[in-house]
Structures are given as C-alpha cells and as structure tokens.
C-alpha cells in the first residue's frame, strides 16, 4: 500500500532563505509556462503541451544559471506537469458540462509546494544515515536540512515534496510498498453517523464529541482579521498580520487533523467492519445565496450550518479513517445516505415527522423512540450489512 508521511523541517536561516527562493523560482516557472500557453493559443491558435515546455527547460536553465539553473531539473518538470494537470482537469470539466474554471496565475500566497518526483534525483531522504541522533533530507540548491522525524518511515520513499505553511516548512514523503499492520479481530461491527453536535455517533450508542476548533478560535481570528483589514497592502505590518491569521488557521487545521486521527484509530481498534454514509460534502456545503434573479432562502442559517460542517471536518475524518482501516485490515463500507435519519430502525417507517428535533427520534407508526443519531447509525449499519451480503452472494 502507499502512504504519505509529513515531517517538520528545521532549516537554518540560510536554508530557509534558499527554500523560499526555490519556491519563488518554481512559482515564476509555473506562471511563465501558463503565459506561454495562453499567448500561443491567443496569437497563433497553437496548443502547447507538457512535452514542448519540458524540452525548453534546458535553454531556460542555461540562460539563468543563478536562478532557474540552481534547482533540480526533475522538480521543474514536476511543476510543469502540475500545470499540465490543471489544464487536463479544465478540459475534463468542459467536456462534462461543469463550470470549467480556467487555470490561473499563482500569487505568492497561492503556490506553496515543490515536488521532487524521485528520491535520489535532486533530493535524498535520510541523506546522512550515519548521524547518531538526527535525520536530514538533501535538496539540490538548499543542502542537508534537518528533519524532525517523529515516527519511523516504512516502505520505499518514492517522491519528496517540500511545503510551506505560514512560517513553517514541512517535508512530505510518498512511500510505496508500506507493509500493512493488521489488528486482531474483535468480532464487532458498527455503523457511524457523522454530525455537528457529535462528530461521530456509533450504532451501539457511543458519542464522540465535536471539539469545534474553529469556533473556539473565532474571537482571536476575528481580531486578527480586523487588524489585517486595517493594514496597507505591501507594508511590513500587513505581512505580519497575514502571518498571524495564517498561524491561527494552521493551528485549527492541526487540531482538527489530530482529533480525526485519534477518533479514527479508536474506531479501527474496536470494530472489524465500519459502515458510514457516502457523503457529498461539497454539495452539502454549497452556498444558498442563489442569484439576483433567484435569491436563496434562509441564507444566514445555511451559512452557519455550512461553517459548522466544515469545522467538524467530515472529509478529513473519512480520509483518515479510510487509510487506517486499510492498514489495519478492517472493512470499510460507504452506503447511500438518503433517509437514514428519517427511517425507523424498528419498523422501517420513513417519514419527515419521525425526526422530532435534532436529537430526538420518535416513529409516528410504531412509537419507537431513540436518539436520532443512534437511530441513523443503526440504519447505516443495516444498509452496510445488506451490501456486504449482496456482494458475497454475487
């Protein structure tokens, strides 16, 4: 199996400056390649491909030895492939009839990652294996950068990426052939219902609290954003204000990810099979504002619900749960979410009126009463068991 591992970098002042230069040069390369494609098509009707731009890299590096020529040729090819991927996604959306969204130029705050496609080609993980206490990664043009390796790296390192998050730098390893770590069977199965009041509710009645990390930081974030709004563009004060806002958001993101890891690990340890709803979170959090001709209704309420859903981090949690279940040898099943919260787990009666309040469920047909999220989790588990039986019969 493949896994990605993320470690904090500890660069020196000079290395941090070199990393920033590397990121900026790759951003400029991306923007120049995008301008090349746009101009060629607008002036001559010619479509430029990745192969054409990759072939020009040799001349670009030769003409700019102190700039583009300092960095790894392979990492620059990866940046050009990134642009090519953006164009392919654009044309796929056009063919599918969706809003296309033409690839855009990257501002300084919109380009934060450089990738080296192969370990050993312009980069080297664990570049000083004989060092008794520390781990280093070597990057062409930067040097041997110390890594805070908080866990062992298993499998074969395939690609190496460096990412800037605020004032911090991280190295991200994509590893192939990572061995699975199966857990002993427990004989237990569970359906889980994701919510806002409780992040996870299991079919056996367990509730996992939603920490609401963004809500807890809302006051400090609002203050930081007001300070940012008062600053002048291009000023030192504005750069510091932007850094404060970014640091607060990064803290919330790390807290949310940490909670997702702990919750998913507890579920994987306790259950052999876990069933969840196949949620379309992007659709669920779509704005209700509508258009001038057809304005939306209950916009403020829908906006608050969207913010709560995104703060809960359902997408992050399901992603973490998926790879932890795969590594532990657990079975993970996604089922259709329609009517799971309106169906009685006892008699199967489906009605909107069954959901009395956010937390209370009372069947209008048989009188069954339960916590609404527990009732939904039981329905989710039942649907997952039916899917598994159908798959085994086929």
TrEMBL record:
Q: Which InterPro entries match?
A: Cas12f1-like_TNB, RNA-guided_DNA_endo/Transpos, Transposase, Transposase_put_HTH
Asked if NADP is a keyword of the record, the answer is no
* Domain called Transposase putative helix-turn-helix: residue spans: 1-43
Q: Name one GO molecular function term.
A: DNA binding
Q: Which GO terms describe its biological process?
A: DNA recombination; transposition
Family to which this protein belongs: In the C-terminal section; belongs to the transposase 35 family.
Instruction: Reply yes or no: does the keyword Magnesium apply.
Output: no
Q: Cite the NCBIfam families for this sequence.
A: guided_TnpB
Q: Which UniProt keywords apply?
A: DNA recombination, DNA-binding, Metal-binding, Transposition, Zinc
Q: What is this protein called?
A: Transposase
**Domain Cas12f1-like TNB: residue ranges:** 314-380
**What are the TM regions of this chain, as residue ranges?**
none
Question: What organism is the protein native to?
Answer: Planomonospora parontospora
């Amino acid at each position: 199996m493949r896994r990605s591992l993320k470690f904090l970098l500890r660069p020196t002042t000079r290395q941090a400056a070199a990393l920033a230069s590397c990121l900026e040069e790759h951003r400029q390369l991306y923007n120049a390649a995008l301008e090349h494609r746009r101009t060629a098509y607008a002036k001559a009707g010619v479509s430029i491909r990745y192969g054409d731009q990759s072939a020009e890299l040799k001349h670009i590096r030769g003409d700019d030895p102190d700039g583009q020529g300092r960095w790894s040729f392979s990492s620059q090819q990866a940046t050009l492939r990134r642009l090519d991927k953006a164009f392919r996604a654009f044309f796929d959306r056009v063919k599918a009839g969706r809003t296309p969204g033409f690839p855009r130029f990257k501002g300084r705050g919109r380009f934060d990652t450089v990738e080296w496609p192969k370990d050993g080609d312009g980069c080297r993980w664990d570049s000083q294996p004989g060092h008794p206490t520390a781990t280093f990664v070597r990057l062409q043009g930067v040097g041997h950068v110390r890594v805070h390796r908080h866990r062992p790296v298993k499998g074969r390192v395939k690609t190496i990426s460096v990412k800037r998050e605020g004032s911090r730098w991280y190295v991200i390893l994509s590893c192939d052939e990572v061995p699975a770590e199966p857990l002993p069977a427990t004989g237990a199965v569970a359906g889980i219902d994701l919510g806002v009041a409780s992040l996870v509710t299991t079919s056996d009645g367990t509730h996992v609290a939603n920490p609401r990390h963004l809500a807890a930081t809302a006051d400090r974030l609002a203050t930081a954003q007001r300070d940012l709004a008062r600053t002048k563009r291009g000023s030192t004060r504005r750069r510091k204000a932007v850094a404060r806002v970014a640091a607060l958001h990064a803290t919330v993101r790390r807290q949310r990810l940490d909670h997702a890891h702990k919750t998913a690990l507890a579920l994987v340890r306790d259950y052999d099979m876990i069933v969840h709803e196949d949620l379309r979170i992007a659709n669920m959090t779509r704005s209700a504002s509508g258009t001038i001709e057809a304005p939306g209704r209950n916009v403020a309420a829908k906006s608050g619900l969207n913010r709560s859903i995104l703060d809960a981090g359902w997408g992050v949690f399901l992603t973490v749960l998926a790879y932890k279940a795969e590594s532990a040898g657990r079975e993970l099943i996604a089922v259709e979410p329609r009517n799971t919260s309106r169906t009685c787990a006892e008699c199967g009666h489906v009605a909107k009126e069954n959901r009395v309040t956010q937390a209370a469920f009372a069947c209008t047909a048989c009188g069954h009463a339960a916590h609404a999220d527990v009732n939904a989790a039981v329905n989710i588990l039942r649907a997952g068991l039916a899917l598994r039986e159908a798959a085994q019969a086929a």
